[in-house]
């Protein structure tokens, strides 16, 4: 019996390939399914099941394309209602896979249909738990994504408490836990960088599995400090429940090279967002006016979801030549299917045509230190509240990138301000959004807080300043 974790860092997401005696189960597949099919073909195996732990909020699953291309059965746990053919398994049901079995464990809490899959090997030993968003390494799934008028976050947290205590914690300590996500995912708040662990270890070190924890304590700790989920989450849920276009159709539609002239016409006539995916310190030196920078090198797809709230938004892409297919694929993973095309030849072709170009000033951390010594500058930190709380520039204001649109009025249009994040990736996103909204006095700090700390010249503190921007 073979278990392979296929981990995608951009989404902090784990897909699982399980094979026994020529039969394969794929758990929580990404939208591009060709690698799973090719892997099974190399092994001379047949994909029998596509097992879904829940209706994923943060990515579009490949279950439909995978089932269509292989004949595999899509499986959900109890309570799932789909707009396509799927097998809704019963709690405790065992699905045969080669010489082993997969036991269905209904674990509501993160969502009502959330289900874990327990792998039982050829010798009848409980070997591995594919825990979806119910149990992470160091954390558990957030219980606020499936709230309804008659069902509160606390209700769901209570269900999660019962699921963990009644279905998961009684399992043997040596069972290996394989979660759907790791650190960086918005589906939890305290996830480890490790992507697997034994259940016994989690019972010792995961705060949510403390043996003497009361239900009330669990609900309080699990719900405390949750940030609002990104706007694209419910849209991805609908796509996963109701269906979507084949990824091949989506990629073909978006793979349209546009000359600078055609690109400009499309931008003017469609209202499409111009999304520039080049690196931050390349983008700032020259870009198409009003374009938004979200670099392909970081957690690209989740940030697109956070900053472009409607998955139906039409997009025009500016990419480094040769990265267009990767960009389209990563957009499709989170449901951004309406790409009209990309700038042929990249930004260099635009500049060579004599079109208008914009820039963003970016300074070093040492230069920021010089300016802070010379005058009382406004510094804006766009990191997450937890990062800001841990340590920040004395007097800086915290306006997290995730909520920049809601706090746009807090940025001063009439004076220069300096914006930074941890390493420069997020601050350039923020600067590009502000620039597109008419803020001409924004200056980016290259290298972010990491570079700021290295100077040793800028006073920092762990005191939490008010989140509202104030002139000093």
Summarize the structure.
With 472 residues, this protein is an alpha/beta fold. The chain contains 16 helices and 24 strands.
Describe the structure.
The protein is an alpha/beta fold and 472 residues long. It has 3 domains: 231 residues, Ribonuclease Z/Hydroxyacylglutathione hydrolase-like (Metallo-beta-lactamase, Chain A), CATH 3.60.15; 108 residues, Rhodanese-like domain (Oxidized Rhodanese, domain 1); 101 residues, 3-Layer(aba) Sandwich (Oxidized Rhodanese, domain 1). It is built from 16 helices and 24 strands. Strands 1-2-3-4-5-6 form a 6-stranded mixed beta sheet, with helices on one face. A hairpin with a 4-residue loop joins β1 and β2. α7 packs across α11 and α13 packs across α16. The C terminus is likely disordered.
Main attributes?
472 residues, alpha/beta, Metallo-beta-lactamase, Chain A, Oxidized Rhodanese, domain 1, 6-stranded mixed sheet
At the first level of CATH, what is the class of the largest domain? Answer: Alpha Beta
Provide the β-strand percentage band.
Answer: 15-25%
Largest sheet at a glance?
Answer: 6 strands, mixed
CATH topology of the largest domain: Metallo-beta-lactamase, Chain A
Q: Please compute the radius of gyration using only Cα atoms.
A: 24 Å
Number of strands: 24
Number of helices: 16
The low-confidence runs, each spanning 5 or more residues with pLDDT under 50, are 465-472
Major sheet strand order: 1-2-3-4-5-6
Distance between the termini: 64 Å
Secondary-structure arrangement, i.e. CATH architecture of the largest domain: 4-Layer Sandwich
Overall outline = globular
> Can you identify the CATH superfamily of the largest domain?
Ribonuclease Z/Hydroxyacylglutathione hydrolase-like
Oligomeric grouping of the chains: single chain
**Domain module count:** 3
Question: Helix/strand/pairing class, anyone?
Answer: alpha/beta
